[in-house]
Design a protein that fits this description.
Layout: H1 32-49, H2 52-57, H3 81-109, H4 112-124, H5 128-141, H6 146-158, H7 162-175, H8 180-193, H9 196-204, H10 209-214, E1 224-226, E2 230-232, E3 236-241, E4 247-251, E5 263-264, E6 271-273, E7 277-286, E8 296-302, E9 311-313, E10 317-319, E11 324-328, E12 333-338, E13 349-350, E14 355-356, E15 360-370, E16 376-386, H11 392-395
Parallel strand pairs: 2-8, 10-16
Antiparallel strand pairs: 1-3, 3-6, 4-5, 4-7, 7-8, 9-11, 11-14, 12-13, 12-15, 15-16
Length: 396
């Protein structure tokens, strides 16, 4: 057994160390340095658990019960330093990795080419929603880019989402008036939506001949109405012609013509305006796709006039020899006459050719009646006196 203070060998049975006089304490036979290291760990542990007051007022760990300082021991170097160093290196490495990743993410987020590559990769995996997200980011980086818009429009068309596709395609045509592919796809969208008005609106702003050709089958020529509008003094028949042999719908009361409100025109039956008044004929052509032309309007006024009086030749007189009387009137008119001065009617003698003058003093009354509108001229009268000249024998 050894002295705990100086480490000298103690003689068996001694109460004090013969070398330093230290009271003998029983201690196991191990290294003083190891004992000191263990005491150090215990001391640190107690300091961490005890309040400040207890640590300051208690027995010093290196002093005896009576305050005597225990023999000093050399401290052993802590084994936590390597662990701490390793931890610091790991923290630095992680921080560096995070910084690198943040830099790469920032660079990719602001790279048009990267966004397009990721979008194309998503498309190949049929992940269209993700692809659209990448394309939108790419478009935000290049707001005037046409190819990205076209790629997005194709995805929307694939998903049959026509409204966003139409917006993108119209933007392309505004950026490039000669983009044939954009116009072709716009027509496809309008066809799917049966929005033919939009097709015609698109066509109205096209100046390129090749692009105009895309709209040819959607452009319906206006109908042609005859005779020309205006005021007429007779009943008329109105005809309507389609340059492209389309169906024609018309109205005569001012309503817009279509399949619902209009009458289907037939070449075998023209439109009769057979009464006095005002007419407004509206006509439109409709092709096989159901696309209507512009509406054409013609206005007519029918104001019927009575026929002129008949022309009588000779126009009355005194005659001694037989004379044939000729009566003429306007076209489409019938002539009725009497010789006794009474008013002729439609039941009176109808003039068909020259007539002779009856003998005596006669009043020729003539009435002209228009066969189409039924109006008459009123009675025209003229006096014929006819007495045949007597021969010499008769005179004697």
């Amino acid at each position: 057994m050894k002295c705990v203070k100086c480490g000298a060998e103690l003689k068996e049975g001694c109460v004090y160390c013969s070398a330093c006089g230290q009271e003998v304490q029983v201690a196991p036979d191990y290294s003083v340095l190891e004992d000191d290291y263990l005491r150090s760990l215990l001391r640190e542990d107690r300091r961490g658990r005890e309040p400040d007051g207890e640590r300051s007022g208690g027995t010093h760990p290196q002093k005896g019960i009576h305050g005597a300082k225990k023999p000093g021991r050399k401290k052993k170097k802590s084994s936590l330093a390597p662990v701490i160093a390793v931890c610091c290196l790991l923290v630095i490495a992680v921080a560096a990795g995070v910084s690198v990743k943040l830099y790469i993410d920032y660079k990719n987020a602001n790279s048009y080419d990267y966004q397009v590559r990721m979008a194309e990769s998503a498309v190949s995996d049929l992940n269209y929603e993700t692809a659209l997200g990448y394309y939108k980011t790419a478009l935000s980086l290049r707001p005037q880019d046409i190819s990205t818009r076209m790629a997005m429009a194709d995805l929307y068309l694939e998903r049959k989402e026509y409204d966003p596709a139409m917006v993108l395609l119209i933007e392309i045509t505004e950026l490039d008036r000669r983009n044939l592919d954009a116009y072709r796809k716009l027509i496809r969208v309008c066809e799917a939506k049966k929005d033919y008005d939009s097709i015609l609106e698109l066509a109205s702003g096209v100046t390129d001949a090749e692009i105009s050709g895309l709209f040819r089958e959607y452009m319906v020529s206006e109908p042609v109405i005859s005779p020309a509008e205006g005021e007429y003094n007779e009943f008329i028949l109105v005809s309507v012609f389609s340059p492209e042999d389309c169906d024609i719908y018309y109205t005569v009361n001012g309503d817009p013509p279509d399949r619902k409100n209009g009458t289907l025109y037939s070449n075998t039956r023209k439109i009769p305006l057979d009464g006095e008044g005002e007419y407004e004929i509206q006509a439109v052509c409709r092709n096989a796709k159901g696309i209507y032309s512009e509406v054409v309007t013609s206005s007519y006024v029918i104001r019927l006039l009575p026929p002129e009086y008949a022309t009588v030749t000779p126009d009355g007189g005194r005659f001694s020899e037989p004379v044939m009387v000729t009566i003429r009137a306007e076209a489409d008119c019938d002539i009725y006459y009497t010789w006794d001065g009474t008013d002729p009617t439609r039941l009176s003698a109808r003039y068909t050719g020259p007539v002779g003058i009856p003998e005596g003093n006669n009043i020729l009354s003539v009435l002209v009646v228009n066969r189409i509108n039924g109006l008459d001229s009123g009675v025209y009268r003229t006096n014929f006196i006819y007495y045949p000249q007597k021969t010499g024998e008769e005179t004697a």
